[in-house]
Amino acid sequence: MGDAFCSDCKRHTEVVFDHSAGDTVCSECGLVLESHSIDETSEWRTFANESGDNDPVRVGGPTNPLLTDGGLSTVIAKPNGASGEFLSSSLGRWQNRGSNPDRGLILAFKTIATMSDRLGLVATIKDRANEIYKKVEDQKSSRGRNQDALLAACLYIACRQEDKPRTVKEICSVANGATKKEIGRAKEYIVKQLGLETGQSVEMGTIHAGDFMRRFCSNLGMSNHAVKAATEAVRTSEQFDIRRSPISIAAAVIYIITQLSDDKKPLRGSMIFLHASDSSGLDADISLATGVAEGTIRNSYKDLYPHVSKIIPSWYASEEDLKSLCTP
C-alpha cells in the first residue's frame, strides 16, 4: 500500500501494487495509474539444474577491477549425472586447459578472504590486502617466495594502513603454516617493492597500545568498568617515555588493571602468583590473551610501575589501592 495522486478521484488516494502484472491501481476507483512497472529489488529465484540446490545466485558475484576480465568470466559447472554429462565434462576439460591469466590472483584473493574471515576483519581491509598483493604480483619479482607468507604480510600491512592493526602472532595463526619470521621477511620485501614502484616510502600507519586494548580485554572477559580504566590508562601512558612496544605496554596495563580489581588475571596460568589472593576467579591468562611473553610483560610492568599513580585513573583506584601492587 502506498499513496499517490489519482486523476479520476482528483486527490491523493491509497494505491495497491499488483506484483504479477506490474500495475499500480487506485484502491478507490480502480484506475490503473501506472502499468508494467519494473521491480528493481533482488530476484531470489533458483535457476539450478539440481532440485536440491537452493542457491539463489544467478547473476554471479560483483565485478573485480583487479582482474583482467573484471571477475565476470564464465565457469562451466561440473556434471551432476543428468543428461548432457558428456558435453559439460568435455567443455570443463577444455576450459581448464585454456590459459587463465588471473588464476593465480583468484586463488590468492580467496586465501586472503579466508584469513580475513577467520580474523573477523572488515571488507575494506580485505580489499586493501588484495590491492597490495596485485601491485606486488604485477612486478613479477615474487617468484620462488613463500606464497602464504606474502599473503599474510599483505593482510598485516593492510590492517596497519586501515588503522586496525593486528599483531604478527594473530596474522600467523591464520597464515597456513607461515612462521613469524617468514611473514616479517615478506613484509619487508613488500614494503621495499612498493617503495621502488612509487618512489617514496610506504605509509604503514602508527601503532598505538590503545589499538589492541579492547580486543585484548574482550579475550580476557573483563568488565566494562575495567576496560574503560585500561583504555584511559594506556592513553595516559603515551605521555611518558616508556621504550616498549605498544603491544607490551597494553599487556602490562591490563595486568595492572586486573590486579587492582576483584577479578584478577594471572600472567600465565601455571605461574606462581604474586599475591595469595591472585589464585581465585581466574578465567584466562594475560600472556595467552595478548600473545606477549610473560617475561616481556614483567619487564614492561617494571617500566610502568614508577608512573602508575599518574597512569591509573583516580576514579578506578585510590592511592591506598595502588600500594597493594607488588614492587617489581
UniProtKB/TrEMBL annotation:
Residues 2-34 form the TFIIB-type domain. One of its GO terms (molecular function) is TBP-class protein binding. InterPro entries: Cyclin-like_dom (IPR013763), Cyclin-like_sf (IPR036915), TFIIB (IPR000812), TFIIB_CS (IPR023486), TFIIB_cyclin (IPR013150), Znf_TFIIB (IPR013137). Keywords: Metal-binding, Nucleus, Repeat, Transcription, Transcription regulation, Zinc, Zinc-finger. One of its GO terms (cellular component) is transcription preinitiation complex. Its main location: nucleus. It comes from the Eukaryota. It is found in: Nucleus. The keyword Zinc-finger applies. GO terms for biological process: transcription preinitiation complex assembly. Pfam families: TFIIB (PF00382), Zn_Ribbon_TF (PF08271). The keyword Protein transport does not apply. Belongs to the TFIIB family. This is TFIIB-type domain-containing protein. It comes from Dovyalis caffra. The lineage of its organism: Eukaryota, Viridiplantae, Streptophyta, Embryophyta, Tracheophyta.
